[in-house]
Write a structure and sequence with these properties.
Elements: E1 2-4, H1 10-20, H2 27-36, E2 38-44, E3 47-56, E4 60-68, H3 77-89, E5 95-101, H4 105-113, E6 117-127, E7 132-141
Parallel strand pairs: 4-5
Antiparallel strand pairs: 1-2, 2-3, 3-4, 5-7, 6-7
Helix pairs in contact: 1-2
Amino acid sequence: MLRDASASDVVCFANIDAAATAFPWSRTQYEQSLRDHQCRVLTVDGAIVGFLVYTVGIDEAELLNVVVSPEHQRRGYGRRLVEDFIGINRGGAERLFLEVRDSNDSAIRLYQSLGFFQCGTRKGYYPAEQGREDARVMVYEY
């Protein structure tokens, strides 16, 4: 089930992100995101298995973070979350943006399969084990 996030979800977000990524957002960042942005949650049998955070502008939206718990990855849940993001913004946005680590091949393939394409690069955008890593800027146009 997909739903809007609530304040009680923040601890779960931080825990899932810490388990799934090398450079997770903090609980404070998720609390701020819940206040300042849009947050969607994917649950299976009542448990949160993934979520995404996005922001909306006048004619565009930007996907800021999407995370699926490690034990639920490779089951199509990331795809469902991004499809939800695309669907929710249809009719309000002309385009959607996101940044993705240049090394995250599986995410890049997912985004491309949904119609996103690369429109730029942000040099040294992400922290990495050794220095910084570039981000691909991707866009989806309705």
